[in-house]
Amino acid sequence: MLFWQLEDDINYPSRWYLNEIGGKNVDKGYNWQFLTGDGVVDEKYTLSLTRDGAEMDFTLTDAFVVPIVSGRLKDALDFVEGVRFFEILLERKQQSIYAYYAMVTDKMVDCFDEKSSIFQIFTPDDPIRPDRAGEYHSVLRLAVDPIRAAGHDIFRIERYPTALIVSDRIKRILDQLDLSGLRFVLCA
């Protein structure tokens, strides 16, 4: 089975850039909980824009690469186990065409294929992030072990939670829809 890293299309014409999620239970400058699902509660959140532009069905925020999806994309993925959606109110002058949601999965799978990937690991003496010692960073090529990832449709990788991975089954479903902003990178 094939697996794909889901990214947003940075070359989408006149695209918008989404900044940071805010809310009653969100500390400013800290959106990590939207990568793991820890502490994310069911409330309406706000989202600031770095630069306004053309709406996309799939966008990663500039702050912490949180996936923001349109109602159309949400509806296509509602059946996926372990994925939750939280309504987002965009802070922009014009009204959005669609409703938007932060897409969160707490599913972490230990499937990083170290033999086939090109990467570095944070060390305890890292001058900037010693707190992340042992975690992956600077991943130039990401390979997923298909045996360890089998049976999972949308997930993040243990020790590398910024990568959002989808199965080939999910990619095929999304490819059939006319959705904007999606970019799939093969993890092999």
Automatic annotation (TrEMBL):
Name the InterPro entries on file.
Imm11
Q: Which residues form the Immunity MXAN-0049 protein domain?
A: 59-185
- Its domain of life? Bacteria
Any single Pfam family the record assigns to this protein: Imm11
Descriptive protein name: Immunity MXAN-0049 protein domain-containing protein
Species annotation: Agrobacterium leguminum
